[in-house]
């Protein structure tokens, strides 16, 4: 068998292509449409069916043929069917109260929207904010005296029992309930958990009809609010406890509601007359009970919590209660507690009766009235005791001078709508100026003002004055921390309304303030925010970088992590907003600097993900650089970039691609024929790639880049460079490891390698032989490498490569090649079909076939590998059929043998075999292929038994 | 075999006036038919007087409680001995609330030494081996509205160390000035007590300001009479050192049952007072007393 004679089949690619081209089939655009008929019948039948099943009205009831998709979905879709069905059932199933509840809520919502302005900030938003903001690490304590509600009126007829005995009995009761306890040293989380427990036990008590216990829990909870021992946590505590109160209020309201919902639920806008006597009596009872709560604070809170229940009793109950409760709050001595009580009352008031805005004003004026209390001695002491930030105490100190309303002004600016403040910004500036210099620090006031004007636009004409006035004060602030806090706010205003000149000035000022004593080290968050704000408003990077203080500003970020983060945010904005490729030297320089900073942060400890991210950003930048026709400058930019970003491999890869692209672009511009100058340039490009590729660590990117660069070099007629690339690729092959890691998993590299080799072989067709080396130098080199490569045991890879080399060799022996590169002479022209060359090829083919056959034989020895043997034999058969000249008897005999071998063990797929036979018969009909019909005769199909 | 006996009044708030009819149903719920020896219903209004141990000796107080005064009493037989079918049975009843002779129906009042209470009591006699069933139900009587018009007369007050009586060492007292007013001392019982108090100044911080509602009950008997004042409730109106100069509202709802229109009879008296109590941080207790006259309109 060893002496196989190879003859390649002569091919006429043109003719084959012609034959293969299908006849253009005319599409009939008549009235027939495959979807149409289905669509129409479909909707008709379905509609009939649907009417019976659900009563919900369908939206597709128009007479025009509906959209096929929607008609398909409408009705047959199980989900919508289900939804429709349940929609009709719910009113019947659901508890009457819940339906009423829904309606009520809707009504209230509408009403609320009507009365409350659109800018009303709902409590739900504020709530989360408070919880997140006010936290503490200090230890807290809960003090609950459940059951010892001294507000309870003494029970009648207890006169016989002396006072002492009675208290003892009460104590006993308390112990029974196990509720008198003091919990100390709670962390904030424990505290919140405890309160949540209380909330739960409230619900449980309510559910088990222990209304008195529920009330007691609520009273105890609200009592906790009188304890201001850890001020930092107080707002959060307030939120937690008012949650409980809300729950309680809801429970009471819903209970009374259900009492009146017999026989039918109350309408949404019920009046007192709709409420039955029992419900009224229950409601009244609650109010009497609450009115007898001894302590002021719980009485206020609990009454506020059930404020809504007034609706059951009389028409104007809420209207009368709100002002009364407002006035009663004056009785709370601690200004903090009082203020929060007011907040709760206002909140509940807004929820229950949004139209009663009067009490809001009244509350506010009361708050103002009690304002001077803050300066009182005890509060001061308390604050000092609790080490609340010194700033706060300072604020208080200054508020002592009544008439100095800076603190108030501050609150006004922070709380009022930004539009309101912005419209009167000049007035505010005037007021701020009038404030006592020794008062509340002015920069805080300007900070608040800045926040407002940054959100809303002050009148056009005043803008510059505002900025000037504000900045005059800001720039005088001594403490760098205060300064930067304030400056940060005003940057936004400046960016919004002014040009780069003003922003630049501000940046310069910030630099001036922050540089002494390295003050910037403590202000990174603020400085970062400055950058962020600038980036939000300046998307034109040429403008951005032409601010001369921008880069010096960046230099203030001296801590590596912060620096990289800032660079990254700049890059992100750049990539998002830079649409046009740029060649602006200012941008390039600055960006290069920024990218270099990012790149330099990479070290051995950097995570893969982080690296990938940075590389992505830098690549984004590189892709944006374009010097137009100035190719050389582009190349030199790439050289510079390579030097700068040598640690990020994917950037290297991108650079090589860029350079290759550059070479091809040159080629395109020159329309394929290079001048001397451009030829030198593309060679330079090739050189660039050639020296860059070895620095990559991933072997497959090296291989594919070699191949790609080789192809590019070939396309640009740089033959020796192409040769070098391909040679380098070949000599790299032995280094390919047997397994590589793909996405963190080890995988065999074989399939990748086969892919690459096939790709490589296809390129080899057009590579002309080197004049100094022998015939088919590269092919032989490749085959040698393949032979020497340590393939995996039990793998047919090597033989597969051999099999796939055969088509290449066959293609090489044609008179005209399948493809060629313009202006490059391939072997077809070099050898011109020289018999010696053909002989060489045939010899090589024969050797390969011999190798394959040997391998097949070896496989035949082993029972287990017969399947592989069959497959391999079949693929060789295919190659012979397609590329071999089967007029040669030996070859056709070989083909028949292979066919038989592949079918010997029955692993061949019959369908494939049948189709192959059909193909051969089809081929045989052509003029020069008649010999195939003989062969076909000898190919037997395996019969299935 | 379980049976429950209940009295349900028609009015949810159980409040009746003289001359009205107390109507309701007796509700019987049992699983199976029930044998009984008759069901009767009685209505009774009583004034219970008790002498405090302070004014008389302990033993005397124990034995010598004054005989209750009956205001109204009537009795009807609801059902003769027989059987009640299983399930829910409702037997309606009506009692006219009329007094005999010149007796007056006082308003319901639950106090310490004086108790005015109206009850309905339903008894079901049952054959041997089964306990008789009893059910009590209190209903509330409000006296007839007062004819005369109540003209509120505001009462102003000022409290300083000098206005105080009863002080041991006036010189040790810190300086303070509290002004205020009650909108009226002749109050309508169904409306809250209102007013204002202003702390003008105080050397020592204030701990708390409270309203103490006090009942003064007087019982007369053969040996003389006993007069006792006890607290009904204590309502805090200010907590902590309140803002000086800012008026703080005085507001107190009169609790039901524990208050009634001021009452004066030959045998006993029920009167009310309110104390404005100010507790200073050094635990000084300053009290200003105002007698009230409650009425119902």
From TrEMBL, chain A:
Question: What UniProt keywords are attached to this protein's entry?
Answer: Endosome, Protein transport, Transport
Q: Where in the cell is it found?
A: Endosome
The UniProt transmembrane annotation reads none
Q: According to its UniProt record, where is this protein mainly located? A: other
> Matching InterPro entries, A to Z?
VPS35L
A GO cellular component annotated for this chain's UniProt record is:
endosome
Report any one BP term from Gene Ontology.
endocytic recycling
Top-level lineage group: Eukaryota
Q: Where is this region: Disordered?
A: 38-77
Comp. bias regions, Low complexity: 53-64
State the PANTHER family in the record: ESOPHAGEAL CANCER ASSOCIATED PROTEIN (PTHR13673), VPS35 ENDOSOMAL PROTEIN-SORTING FACTOR-LIKE (PTHR13673:SF0)
Family per record:
Belongs to the VPS35L family.
Descriptive protein name: VPS35 endosomal protein-sorting factor-like
Native species: Perca flavescens
TrEMBL record, chain B:
Any matching Pfam family: Vps26
Recorded hits in InterPro entries, A to Z, give:
Arrestin-like_C (IPR014752), Ig_E-set (IPR014756), Vps26-related (IPR028934)
Gene3D superfamilies linked to this entry: 2.60.40.640
What does the record list as coiled-coil region(s)?
Answer: none
The Gene Ontology biological process annotation of the record reads: intracellular protein transport; nervous system development
UniProt keywords, alphabetically = Endosome
Taxonomically, the superkingdom here is Eukaryota
Subcellular location(s) of the protein: Endosome
**Main localization of the protein?**
other
Keyword Ribonucleoprotein tagged: no
UniProt family annotation: Belongs to the VPS26 family.
Q: How does it assemble?
A: Component of the commander complex that is essential for endosomal recycling of transmembrane cargos; the commander complex is composed of the CCC subcomplex and the retriever subcomplex. Component of the heterotrimeric retriever complex consisting of VPS26C, VPS29 and VPS35L; within the complex interacts with VPS35L. Interacts with SNX17 (via C-terminus); the interaction is direct and associates SNX17 with the retriever complex. Interacts with SNX31; the interaction is direct.
Q: What is this protein called?
A: Vacuolar protein sorting-associated protein 26C
Species: Perca flavescens (American yellow perch)
